[in-house]
């Protein structure tokens, strides 16, 4: 299952979906209103979509690949539903600000949040680091972060250390993650890079991607 990030929409996940399908994966894409939609509504809608996927394939484990805000949305959904969390073998997050985004915080302070971040502004600014160990008990968590500093975020805030132009690498890190990978790509490049797609496919088919005992 593919979950897009802020501003992108389901179309942004099409290149990744096509690549995964070529490798024999059955792919669904979940779309939601990342700016205008209510956060609680989006979490509930993702849970419903997840349950539908599990009903269609009750004997198979599901993998979720989520970009940026989508990773926070997936974490929130999996933390609320033990059955869903236990049935998801792996959550791969692409540039997700687990610890909160300095860029989002800057937008909130500037008063632009209602127009640019909408209802997602608060969760993007604070992150959901506290949910990572909760979900990690049932589901393998992998983060792929970028360190190519090209993106809107660098114009909005001083990002410390390595960053992908929007999200700092440090914002994607957490000790409860099972794996944290760093690649020379930008925030948008996480969706377009062949190297990222290769690592996703490798993680999906690798022995380590099997459900945790």
Give an overview of the whole structure.
- The chain is of the alpha/beta class.
- The chain has a single domain, classed as Rossmann fold, CATH 3.40.50.1820.
- It has 11 helices and 6 strands.
- The protein has helices spanning 14-22, 39-56, 69-80, 82-87, 102-110, 113-116, 121-126, 132-136, 153-156, 189-192, 194-205, and strands at residues 2-3, 29-30, 62-67, 88-94, 140-146, 179-183.
- A 6-stranded parallel sheet has the order 2-1-3-4-5-6, with helices on both faces.
- Strand 5, helix 9 and strand 6 (179-183) form a beta-alpha-beta unit.
- Helix 2 packs across helix 3.
- The longest helix has 18 residues, at 39-56.
- It is globular, with a radius of gyration of 16 Å.
- Mean pLDDT is 87; it is low at 207-213.
CATH topology: Rossmann fold
Task: Give the overall pLDDT as a whole number.
Answer: 87
Major β-sheet profile = 6 strands, parallel
CATH class descriptor name:
Alpha Beta
Main sheet: which strands, in order across? 2-1-3-4-5-6
Structural class: alpha/beta
**Low-confidence residue ranges:** 207-213
Cα distance spanning the termini: 22 Å
Radius of gyration: 16 Å
Which CATH architecture would you pick? 3-Layer(aba) Sandwich
Strand content: 5-15%
Number of domains: 1
- The run of helices and strands is EHEHEHHEHHHHEHEHH
Q: In the CATH hierarchy, what is the superfamily?
A: Alpha/Beta hydrolase fold, catalytic domain
Please count the helical segments.
Answer: 11
